[in-house]
Amino acid sequence: MGHEAIAKGAHVILGPTINMQRSPLGGRGFESLSEDPVLAGLGAAALVRGIQKTGVQATIKHFVCNDQEHERNAVDVRITERALREIYALPFQIVVKEGRPGAFMTAYNKVNGTHVSENPEIVEKILRGEWGWKGLVMSDWFGTYSTTGAIKAGLDLEMPGPSVWRTNMLGHAVATAKVPLHILDERARSVLSFVNSCAASGVPENGKETTRDAPETAALLRKIGGDSIVLMKNEGSLLPLSKDKKTLIVGPNAKISAYHGGGSASLAAYYAVTPFDGISSKLSRPATYTVGCYAHKELPLLGTLLKTDKGEPGVTFRVYNFPPSKKDRELCDEVSLIKSEFLLPDYKCDKLTGDLWYADIEGYLTAEETCVFELGVCVYGAAKVFVDDKLVIDNETSQKQGTAFFGCATIEEKGSVNLEKGKKYHVKVEFTSAPASKLDTAGHVNFGGGALRIGGAKVIDAEQEIKHVVELAKEADQVIVCAGLNADWETEGSDRDNMNLPGYMDALISAVVSANPRTAVVMQSGTPVRMPWVNEVPSLIHAWYGGNETGNAIADVLFGDTNPSAKLPLSFPKRLQDNPAYLSFRSERGRTLYGEDIYIGYRWYESIELPALFPFGHGLSYTTFAFSNLQIEKSEEKLNVTVSISNTGKVAGAQVAQVYISQKNPSIRRPVKELKGFKKVYLEPGEVKEVKIEMDLKYAVSFWDEVRSAWIMEKDEYEVLLSDSSALGDGSLKGKFEVQKTTWWNGL
After folding, report:
1. What are the EC numbers (predicted)?
2. Cα distances (angstroms) measured from residue 191 to each of 120, 195, 249, 721
């Protein structure tokens, strides 16, 4: 990631995100790492260390409790001090201790009545005071809400520039002694120190943007993608599949590249491999394919379906100072783009004379079959869509508010055209920049140049399509269903309404597995989805959003070239109502009460003895493993757990040893157990390795004492539970140790 930033001419990466996956519905849950604070903190610390080895600075975000998108700028998160410390602030504390990120980004929301960017209890007292952190604190984009309050609370940098709350306002605050000069000096010193840190990257100011699309990078991405896939179930060892059998590929995610979620984490890739292409590359004969049903919230991006006038995939983007009605207007800029989605926060062209400008986006669509084809466009600005010079969509004259592009854009306006197989059609979008928008964007993150999304798909009858799929499934030797969500459903700016898969997807999966029991389901989502068909399906893998090599990584696992070894970083509930935040997830008149307190994720399910559909830490393999010889060593500061892991199966694979700690007689109610350490080890068939998991004792056993405002490590007996999942199967091991003296502590 650091090397990629250098290639892009960037000094800073705005990540990683380590907010808690409190609910399955969180719009940015796919960005976060886990429902468990220790796993999130240690994972983020590793990312930070890797990024900053290159000299590029990492920005840990969003500090703190930015766990929902609903009314995110205004919502007041009401939370106990214990939950704040043990769950929501702990991953940030671990990152400071283990990773030392260059910058922190504050959350949009309030915590207990005060916006975080102007909350001295959180920024000055906890982050800078208790944790002794010396780096930069920046706001999220347009997440500064005051001058004096934010400066005094410790906010160094208002983003983005130019400042709204600083410059003249800050000068007035200093002149009237609202902001003492020594505090202003502290803020300026942090910014200058951060700038000096960025120099270590070697990236010059306004450095040229280049690419870093190398074969070794692709190989690494493919390996990481495969190693992140979770084998959820595999009855009858259906997986790995055969490369020589007649294969049917079906599902809405088969021919799209769902390699990221939506919002600011949505970046244009050099390339992206679809599951269909990855799977097809493994087969000895061509697969049969049909879509089965659609899953889009908005029509799939036209993307590579379009070709430029040079025959290259994508569209041509031509920029002007004047509208199409002006004859002989001068061309200001021309670029070719593969993606048909454009977010233009910092688009610049020296020839443009103002914020209001115009663009023609053009491409050619060759019909793959005779059909009715539906086009759709949502825009922040204005847009009209023409096919062969005929107006198909007018999203300029009248506009309706939508949720795309952080809530600034219109709904998707649609129009249809009749296509004939083999015929080439000229598609043109007349776009006008953000000032042309008729929408009220107050309260939304406003990205200056505007935004545009162009989608399209064949119109289908879903019920008839499923009947067609059933007939194809009966004729196939094996079936792969590519299902799940995409950036339409999981995105910054809006939370999901429910855990359901969209459209007819559940019906499609049930129908296919009924027609052919040799069916494997590939699920893609960043957070849990409802699976009413799960008991019918023999094999299921969860592939997340796997980056450029998504399709190849999925195929490697399906056909056994990669042995799946990942574990779930969050619990998958059976239904939405089971999750701990069910009654208190959205903002209610400006407030969200974290009523589940410290009991999020597996802590909740275990405490009320409610089984999850798939528990935290779950993940199967094509081989088998055994734990033995558990040893525990405790010193004044460290807790070390050693275990032998054997590969008792016939293929090479990897296992994750997970260490959970449980206090025997706590003075207050605590979770049944909590993850405190883990280690992954790769083993050949028959191989045995001894693994040592090292933990800080105080982090392994402490809880937050609200009376003392400190962490407490109680004198007591503690149980060590070593397992391959939080479910503690038959092969789990147990041991114990004692803490001889009760002590309190603060800081790191």
Report:
1. 3.2.1.21
2. 18, 6, 53, 45
3-class DSSP state of 694: strand
- Helices 90-98 and 37-52, axial angle in degrees (round to 10): 30
Q: What is the CATH number of domain 295-459?
A: 2.60.120.260
14 in Cβ contact with 5 (< 8 Å): no
Q: Classify residue 78 as left (phi > 0), alpha (psi -120 to 50) or beta.
A: beta
Domain residue ranges of the chain, discontinuous segments joined by +:
2-201, 295-459, 625-745
- Mean pLDDT value of segment 583-612: 97
How many other β-carbons are positioned within 10 Å of the β-carbon of residue 53?
10
What is the CA angle 108-111-114, rounded to 5? Answer: 85
- Quote the tokens at residue 159: 């983003």
The CA distance from 493 to 402, in Å, is: 11
DSSP code, position 583: T
Give residue for tokens 């390339």.
271
To the nearest 10°, report the CA torsion of 14, 17, 23, 26: 20
Angstrom distance (rounded) from CA 29 to CA 18: 9
- For residue 21, pLDDT beyond 90: yes
What CA–CA distance (Å, rounded) separates 602 from 20? 13
What radius of gyration, in Å, describes the C-alpha atoms of the chain?
Answer: 27
Is 153 a residue whose pLDDT tops 90?
yes
The span from the CA of 367 to the CA of 422, in Å, is 5
Q: Does domain 625-745 have CATH number 3.40.980.10?
A: no
Identify the bridge partners of residue 454 per DSSP, sorted by sequence position.
377
Q: Is 641 helix (H, G, I), strand (E, B) or coil?
A: strand
Confidence of residue 741 (pLDDT cuts 50, 70, 90): very high
Work out the average pLDDT over 243-253.
98
Position 266 pLDDT exceeds 90: no
Domain 2-201 falls in which CATH fold?
A: TIM Barrel (3.20.20)
Q: Encoding tokens for residue 270?
A: 């050099």
Mean of all residue pLDDT scores within the chain: 96
Please provide the size of the chain in residues.
748
Task: Give the count of beta carbons closer than 10 Å to the beta carbon of residue 70.
Answer: 17
Q: Determine whether 140 is an active site residue.
A: yes
Q: Which residues touch 169 (CB under 8 Å, ≥6 apart)?
A: 147
Catalytic residue among 36, 67, 76, 140: 140
Average pLDDT over residues 119-145: 97
Is residue 473 within 8 A of residue 243, CB to CB? The reply is: no
pLDDT in tens, 370-404: 999 999 999 999 999 999 999 999 999 999 999 88
678 and 661 in contact (C-beta within 8 Å)? no
The tokens for 419 are 């296509």
- Would you give the end-to-end CA distance of the chain in angstroms? 27
CA–CA separation, 439 vs 603, rounded Å? 43
CA distances from 528 to 274, 579, 739 (A): 22, 11, 38
Of 191, 192, 185, 189, the closest CA to residue 170 belongs to 185
The answer to whether the 2-201 and 625-745 domains have the same CATH topology is no
- 436-440's contacts with Cβ under 8 Å and 24+ in sequence apart are 436/356, 436/381, 436/382, 436/396, 437/379, 437/380, 437/381, 437/382, 437/399, 437/408, 438/382, 438/398, 438/399, 439/380, 439/399, 439/401, 439/408, 439/409, 439/410, 440/401
Q: Residues 409, 379: contact at Cβ < 8 Å?
A: yes
The two structure tokens encoding residue 625: 């493993």
Helix or strand run (H / E) with residue 437: none
The answer to whether the beta carbons of residues 62 and 50 sit under 8 Å apart is: no
Q: Does position 211 have pLDDT exceeding 90, yes or no? A: no
